[in-house]
Amino acid sequence: MSTLFDLSFFVTVPFWALMIFAPTWRWTRTIISSPWIVLVPLVIWAIVAVPVLGAIWSLVTSPSLSAITEAAADPAVLTTLWAQIIAWDLFLGRWIYLDSRARDIHPLLMGPLLVATILLSPIAFPIYLLVREFARRSRAGSPAAARPDSVGA
Questions:
Q1: Is 61 within the bounds of a domain?
Q2: Overall domain count for the chain
Q3: If pLDDT is split at 50, 70 and 90, which confidence band does 152 have?
Q4: C-alpha triplet 124, 116, 21: angle, nearest 5°
Q5: How many CB atoms lie within 10 A of CB 67?
Q6: Which of 126, 91, 80 is nearest to 12 (CA)?
Q7: How far apart are CA 153 and CA 151, in angstroms?
Q8: Which terminal CB of the chain, N or C, has fewer other CB atoms within 10 Å?
Q9: Is the pTM of this model over 0.70?
Q10: Domain residues for 36?
């Protein structure tokens, strides 16, 4: 179980590395554009979840802190939760990466923010939304945005 727990993260590392260390490489956008990149940790989730599906179903249909605490003692249940978190973080990081590239937010700003998304996505995501809003306002207030395009004029 420990191997699958570790593997659920390590299979995502190449995608994170592309987004963080090679954000402007054309193959990065091509690879990251596919939502299928989250499939591998989800396959690991499925492999581990099938034998404990009853316990997981109970947790999601009648959640309680005590039930989740008790279930987390089972390495299979904890591994499924971990794989789900890893898949979600990658999906969210993928969206952040693609959105930041579309908005031309500088990769040197985005690299640390993507690392933060790996570590603490509930904190990194709202920070990215603030960065995104700041970039939008900066672009809207820039003189280049106010001038008509000379090519089309």
A1: yes
A2: 1
A3: very low
A4: 125
A5: 13
A6: 91
A7: 6
A8: C
A9: yes
A10: 2-142
Could you read off the pLDDT of 27-47 as tens digits, one per residue? 999 999 999 999 999 999 999
Is there a domain that residue 47 lies in?
yes
Q: Is residue 63 part of a domain?
A: yes
Is residue 147 assigned to a domain? no
Q: Give the model confidence (pLDDT) of 73-103 as tens digits.
A: 999 999 999 999 999 999 999 999 999 999 9
The CA distances from residue 46 to 7, 56, 79, 80, 120, in Å, are 13, 12, 10, 8, 24
Please check the confidence at residue 144 and state whether its pLDDT lies above 60.
no
Other beta carbons within 10 Å of 9: 18
Give the pair of three-digit tokens for residue 38: 């989250």
Longest dimension (CA), the chain: 68
